[in-house]
Amino acid sequence: MPALYQVISAIHYRAYQCKKCEQMNYKLDRGWVSPARHLPSPNFGSRPKNEVVSLLVLHNISLPPGCFDGNAVERFFTNTLDFDEHPWYENIRGVQVSAHLFVRRDGELVQFVSLNERAWHAGRSHFDGRDECNDFSIGIEIEGTDDLPYTDAQYVTLGALCAFLQTAYPHINDGRIVGHSDIAPGRKTDPGDAFEWSKFRRFVQDNKKNSV
Ligand SMILES: [Zn+2]
Hints:
28% of the residues lie in helices and 19% in strands. It is of the alpha/beta class. It has one domain (2-211): 3-Layer(aba) Sandwich (Lysozyme-like), CATH 3.40.80.10. A 6-stranded mixed beta sheet has the order 3-7-6-11-5-12. The protein has a two-stranded antiparallel ribbon with strand order 1-2. A two-stranded antiparallel sheet has the order 4-8. The longest helix is centred in the last third of the chain and has 17 residues, at 152-168. It is globular, with a radius of gyration of 17 Å. Zinc ion binds at residues 59, 180, 188, 190.
């Protein structure tokens, strides 16, 4: 027999599930996506009051760069990385950042920050007349580098995920899915030349079609 609070929260949860989103097999509960492995990071703040999430920013990261073994990125985003572990980590010693979501090489989805909160991924940035893109964006890190091809598994996950997020956050139209390099030109280059935007957009569109 479930406890009363479980029944109430189940009803509450169902009431807010959009039909279309359900068909995409993703769900949102207080800004947490499932299915995703949840690894809460302390690196976040509140979005400005009444802010509308209207931008999706794609990044890349791997630690050390080009190394896809282990879980250094996950430890970096949760402030548990030992910066003495590798000489390259001198470049990021003490840095506290995060992203909402992380797509690993095998397509696994990891979430660090609720989409309701402001993750620290964009830094100094500008889009469509506004600074501080962290205020109104969702940040997705793709495990990789600017010049190594991303995996098909990553495009599959990104396609389904971004189609779902566009449905859940209708202000994120196709023109508002951008790279970090688009909102911080001259300072950032990710997701880089290796990211095939046309392939990515095809995967997103296919997911939208399949959900109708
Ligand atoms: Zn970035």
